[in-house]
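anyone seen this seq b4? input:
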Amino acid sequence: MRTLWRLGYSARLLQTNNFRTAAANTSFPAAWTLLAQYSGIIPGLFVVVRKNRFFTMPDTVEDKADLKLYSPHPGVRGMTQLNREAFKRTVVVPVLKVKTEIVNTLLKSLKHVVLQRPGLKRVVEDPGDENSRFLILDPHKIPEFSLGESEQEVLNRLNVHPEVSKYNLELTYENFKSEEILRAVLPEGQEVTSGFSRVGHIAHLNLRDHQLPYRHLIGQVIIDKNPGITCVVNKTNIIDSTYRNFQMEVLAGESNLVTKVKENNIAYELDFSKVYWNPRLSTEHSRIVELLKPGDVLFDVFAGIGPFAIPAAKKKCHVFANDLNPESYNWLLHNCKLNKVDDKIKAFNMDGRDFLLGPVREELSKELPLQKEEQKNSFHIVMNLPALAIEFLDAFRHLLVREPCGTAGLPTVHCYGFSKHENPAKDIQERAEASLGTSLDGRCSTYLVRNVAPNKEMLCISFQIPVDVLYKRPCPDEAKQASKRLCTSNEFSEEKFLS
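predicted toks r here
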């Protein structure tokens, strides 16, 4: 098993060697001058502040509570191979000396000013007094090492002397956050990548060109700072619009890309290198499934591994799920069995247009004539292939050849698309109308799914297929034939695609 370097394991506090009290109204004798000079280079030495005043120390150790206090050692700038030892640095922080028996009480009362750093103990031993401890305070919240009135009131109530001491604290790699580490390593002013998509044990990055020289270091930092992440990959090309997967490079960790994820309380297994999975679509998957009622029919044209289809089947819907990618199809079947809905989903491995002209047409031809105005069950067609799905909408033109049976049960389409237009909703509607050959004014709704990139949105347009689009009235000489059987231009055998 891989050993993960995580925040919180090897923070080292430099031990106290001397502790002295300096009265605020005394002169600064030579002995104290010598001590102050050495306190900057000898870890653990203190200069004590009494009643919120302290003696100035040399700047050999970084003793200014500025915003760079928690930055790693400046020598790591430009590092491309991770050297954890190089991140060590010593900083000066304020501490309070308190009796052991009141440490817990004081921690609760002063929690807003106590130092909170990954892997650092907030309380350390006082080597000169076994009955006392040092409580480490956050220098950002104790300006000029001076306690505020509220803190002083707490100390007075607990009978603690308001003496603030300077403590030399060693910070190591384990005590820095990933963003702090990467900001210290990458060239100044460059964008820092600390976010990623998590897919099981895999962290998926989209690095910019200027970050590529540091990619392996970035990958290792992500593993070190995120328990459970054992593999980091970077996308090396755009998503292939045919199979919706992309090439990737393993930056750090193991090369195992078969993983398990859980979304909306449903488990899925997949090979991330061969199928499409986006954890950012969890809310959208849930939104569509919530529109469905038990008994409804769902046609998932670009089903992937089943994030729409499987929860719909669990909701007792009748599901027809299709994907062109053979790997996605195989993982779809696997996940149907994993979630015990394999008997409730009919799966297909074919082109989306063929799926619409085949199984979808056949099922609608069979079921729509049976629909009544008071029928409660409905038909939904999900088309989640944002790069191309709108181009498939023309398949609905005259999909059914027969006399319309009214508006009962007309299928509702949920079609996804990308837009860089200044008015994305208008853009998506106009493109859908062009593909369908009819206006959707007043007959559709658009939903902003997410921002994909600067000036690029992903949207979902939902609408019932208009009667004049879906139906083609048969010619007179076809009417008798149509009355004998439902007309479809392409005969479809379900067994052919399930074999």
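Residues 352-367 form the longest helix (16 residues). The first strand starts at residue 48 and ends at 50. kinda curious what u guys think
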